[in-house]
Amino acid sequence: MASPLHLDGSDVNNNSSIKDLENIVEDVEIPVIDFSLLTEGTPDQRYLVVQELAKACEDWGFFVLVNHGVPDKLRNALMDTFKGFFNLPPEDKQDSADTHAMNPIRYGTSFNAKVDDNKYWREYLKVMTHPEFHCPTKPPQFREELKEYSACIRELGKKLLGGIWEGLGLDNNYMREALNLGNCFQIVVGNHYAPCPQPEKAMGLPPHSDHGLISILYQNDVDGLEVQHDGKWVRVKPLPNSYLINTGDQMEIVSNGKYKSIVHRAAVNEKRARMSIVTVTGPSLDTTVVAAPQLVSGESPATFRGMKYGEFMEYQQGHGLQEKSVLKLLRL
Ligand SMILES: O=C(O)CCC(=O)C(=O)O
Ligand SMILES: [Fe+2]
């Protein structure tokens, strides 16, 4: 795949401090959660995996999910189809050009090329798939595959969230209603990071947290995701066929700060194109998200003021991406 970016300086991030290259570690054990125990385990196994999930969310905000049940064939087909989209002639991709944060289909480079001071070495396609399903018309197989994939990930997400609420001592039905998860917002993001001639000077995505409740990510066989943990950047090496799950800003609000959204970034390399597909799941866009009342008390007052999820997302997507900048605005 040819890179849509240029090395005239404008697309390479010259701000090397952002990279913090000294501080990257690889040999850290990231929590692994066996999804099948949550759905098919004995009551004892389920109890234990809910505890593991709670610990992973509290200590990391990030974990590897295995035995998730999403067919490999479907995942691989969709990855190929996203690749097919990025390979289309520029004019076809420009039909979906990112002009506004709330457009249901958005293609672009960097994060928000209109406002980014430094451009990121990334090409993306963001497609809203729930409560209304959207899809680009090319490649022709996109619609069917994305429909099936997004439905599959919604199911997975609902079950994972169920386990997370349980670990927080919250009632699943209550949370479904409070966050209007029947109309949950879902967006599928394809990222393409072409080989970069000067990877030491560029970033694919800068340090940021995701806006939703949880994000469910998989990548091709090229690493590059780094997550912030205990003051270090941990380079993630996924297990074969796994998903990488991270908690987002709405989870931090709902859990009243107990489960922090994890700050992560994407590094690029000189040799091989990297691709990732990230599905972000959140409450319905019109839900005003606040801490679950059961987690607020005299000793633990609410940490964030409420904001409609749709407004939160629009603000985050319409500005430059910077750590947890939107969440910080809501801190009480
Ligand atoms: O490509 C990756 O590994 C990270 C992508 C990401 O963080 C995002 O799309 O929000
Ligand atoms: Fe992200």
- Let me know the CATH homologous superfamily: B-lactam Antibiotic, Isopenicillin N Synthase, Chain
Q: What pattern of helices and strands is seen along the backbone?
A: EEHHEHHEEHHEEEEEEHEEEEHH
If strands are numbered along the chain, what order do they take across the biggest sheet? 2-3-11-8-13-6-5-4
The CATH topology assignment is: Jelly Rolls
| Distinct small-molecule ligands in the complex | 2-oxoglutaric acid, fe (ii) ion
What is the average per-residue confidence, as pLDDT, rounded to a whole number?
92
C-alpha termini separation: 46 Å
CATH architecture: Sandwich
Q: How much of the sequence is in beta strands?
A: 15-25%
Say how many strands there are: 15
CA gyration radius, whole angstroms: 19 Å
Low-confidence stretches: 6-17
User: Sheet with the most strands?
Assistant: 8 strands, mixed
Number of helices: 9
